[in-house]
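Hi everyone,

Forwarding the result from last night's run.
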Amino acid sequence: MKKNKTENKEKSPKPKKRLRKQIWIIIIVICLIALAIYGLKILLWNEDNHNINKQIEEIKEITEVEEVKDTKETKTVNPPKKNTESDYWKYIKLPLISVDFTELLKKNSDTVGFIKVNGTNINYPIVQAKDNDYYLNHSFDKKKNAGGWVYLDYRNDINDLQDNTIIYAHGRTNNTMFGTLRNVIKNSWYKDTNNYVVNLSTPEENTLWQVFSVYKIKTELYYLTSSFGTEESHQKFIDTLLKRSKYDFKAEVTTKDKILTLSTCYDDNYKVVLHAKLIKQAAR
């Protein structure tokens, strides 16, 4: 009897060994599930990129963008004193761009403008929804897409500019949307002074903006303020933006200026931000 018990014990798997085997099975299953999820995300990301690239090409085909010369209707905005070092006097000589919005509005009635940023791939129509969430995951054709689109803050009016007009887009790693806004904090971008302007065209007017601040910052809401209750808070806002800038653009900014803000993600914790002031406009 004692011998049989001993044999039975030897034949029975040890509890610890069985537990280790079960743990390894669980680990393998978890790894397989994680790989499947990761693979699915890559497939969806590539599909979203494909759809966005397709729309970008279609937009290029149907959109006429042309440079226009100044006319009697062209206005310079809040010029500094002529004896200052500001490059304002250089940039107001640059041409405006004018965009034919006929086909764009047919494709998406939310279209409110078109933006071009020198030294980047940013050359897109701008849309606006009733909130700041819709175009985070919908593209220009209004279909679901994690790449989203370039959109104007719902609080802003593109035809009646507030103190600060804000435009957002995802910082896509394939360099679409605001993916190349990261360029503005690179020395190579800063060294080319032709990059210091932003062109914005709307169905109502064409405008030119002079860059005065670029930086990377932890995610916050302060620079996304659209209007100010007092001149003091407004001036403090301007001073803060100038102080934050990675580079000195030698631009004079006052509370009389209209500001344009471009914002995108640098990574999960930081944003890349560009600020420019309105220097020239022409009604269409």
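The chain has a mean pLDDT of 91.

Cheers,
N.
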